[in-house]
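Quick question, first post here. What does this chain look like in 3D?
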Amino acid sequence: MEIVSLAEKLRNYKGKKGTPVKGNKPLSAYNGVKPSELRKMFHSMVMARRIEREEKLLLRKGHCRFVIGCGGKEMIDVVGAHYTRPNDPFFGYYRNKAFDMHRGAELSEKMKEAIGDVRGKGVGGMIQPSHSAYPDLEILPQASPTGSHALEAAGLGCAIVSKAPISKHAIYPNGRYPKDAIVYSAIGEGSTSSPEFARAVFYSVFDNAPNVYAIYNCGWAISVSVDEQFPEGNPTTPFEGFQRFGLKIMNFNGTNIKESLKSVKEAIDYARSGAGPVLMNIKVTREESHSGSDDQSFYMDPDQQKWHIENDCILKTGMTFIKDGILTPAQIGKMWDEIDSQVSEESAKAVADFQPKTYDSIMSKVLSCTFEDIKKRWAGILADAKVDRKKEFAEYAKKKYYPKPDLPETLGPMTMRSAINYTLFEIMKHSQEALIFGEDVGDFSGEILNHPEKMEGLKGKGGVFLVSKNLQRHFGRDRCFNTPLDEAGILGRAIGHVFQGRRPLAEIQFIDYVSPAYQVLKDRICTLHQRSNGQWTGHMVIRVSYGGYKQGAGAFWHSEANIGTFINIPGLHVVVPSNARDAAGLLRTAYACNDPVLFCESVALYNRRDWEGVPVETEYPPIDEIIPFGKANVYHPENNDVAVITYGATVHMARKCAEVLKERGVGLRVVDLRTVRPLDEEAIIQAAEECGRVIVVTEDRMMGGAAPTIASVITSGNAIGSMEAPVRLVTAIDSRVAYGVDGDAICLPTTEKILTAVDEVMNY
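> Answer (accepted):
Ran it through. Tokens below.
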């Protein structure tokens, strides 16, 4: 029912009325809630529905571009907001206006959000209305991909119960949320079909986390009935087996205020007690179609439509309050008039004073920090920790983590794997907030972790390539641990720890296997800063191994180098070191960066000492040395016959080519980009202008890959005027990498292919 008609129906109600309630004592019929609290709930419900009406009016006038309704969910929203504490984090979706208003969101902000005003505090006009982000109210940033927020919520639940420390120097000193907080999530029944929701419930059960999932079951996901999604039309049925492990499943009527107050309180108390997570299947109505582009009258049974109208939670709650003497029809009418006037007034103000977005205002939210910020943060980490490094490395050697007690920067050239391991040790020691987790990253797993004496005689694992070796042994299972084999879950856990204030170093074992986590990465982690109007940051490092050249042992799913897939994601740094010094310096930068970083480690370079005779090992940098993103390292800058622009393992192929070409009298410059997002455009352009002949070499494929993006820096600007030959690309062929040494040779760049490309551009 339209809110104007509904308000008039309640105002003009002539039926049986209860004796007005006197005083403000808790009411047993309402689970001990006071009359003043109930009236406030009703006010929030009506306010939310009136805001929704205003959005429709603004849409017709051309000021608002998108409307999605909350009608039918308001009552369960305000009940959840009433029983949660102000410091209980809330993960909602686009149906939670009433929750927002009851927690304290400002009407003026809702109007700015409706018209996309850049000054809106919550989202700054970045995303559609009904997607909230209010840090002062602990309403965490929302996004449109349905169900994906559940995995964030599960990750935060896991982070809250984690025993890993958080220092006073953290981004949220000593942790953002208290140990007795619960994580409350609202989600539509259709969204619970998503794999992210299924994994979220699993993790909440697995970690015995304080998560409460409120499933708003209106029976319809756009035009798909819940009966076509779940047995008995109940989203909780797939999880009934988890009740053995503490999961509480509840089913109740979310259009009945008395039943809802009792049930939600029971759910929250259960989760807060530490007994386990809760799933609430809540029957609600849908008072409007899914969104402005949908019309449920086209497909919904007329009898069902009637049920939804007659069970409108505002209508039912208003009638109940009248019959119980909590509100009179006149009071409801007055409340409506005041709300109607307030919304109209704030809407008019917002429209009259609308401030549009600009290029700069949008771009300023994509990333959160500069290299100057990173330098200060790294220096602060070192200063706050006050680590006696000589003492620490002497202890490491005594425990046989390393063969020598010397500081790593004094040991001379080393492999990239050694440098990364040293750097992870240094980060973990200097920063309590650092966590390392992923598949196989721990030294041990399972029951043996409870028996330290048994571990002493074993070497331990520490990653499939031994990069994280001895970290768990030294820093403990709370700070370095194995996860289930689930990439989406790894990143969901990472973002949860970010919300609590830690700095995760999450590992995805191979870049090939990021795919299941792609939505979490692209739509949740990398949008966090922008969709929250710069109020939250996604400070994490995602370490991945990548690439071929494994003596033919890689093939399809262990030789991917599809960097282009990730440089297309705004808000993500993509880092690809080619040697020990760069790996250490860039990893420190990545850790101190407040933006998400994909840190790509070439498997072929982990233990490589040379590449066809060209030395690959380098020295470890001093602890205070960090390397800026977007700053290339140039080999043979004095050469200007031809330039190879590349990164990762192929840097050393190009260096080999430079040696070969020197004997032929050709000077080859090698530009090691080190980061592919951002690119060092200055170094690329300089190479083009000074050499006139450029070859871009990547393990990535050409279609959608990094190479065309790098080449476009030259071809789209003035540097093209300096070119004496077309930019030549040497990339992986348009195929997945075939098995065997012959597969690598055919499918991937080689020294011979680069030399052939040099001949072509020199003879053009």
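The two ends are 74 Å apart (CA to CA).
The longest strand covers residues 503-510.
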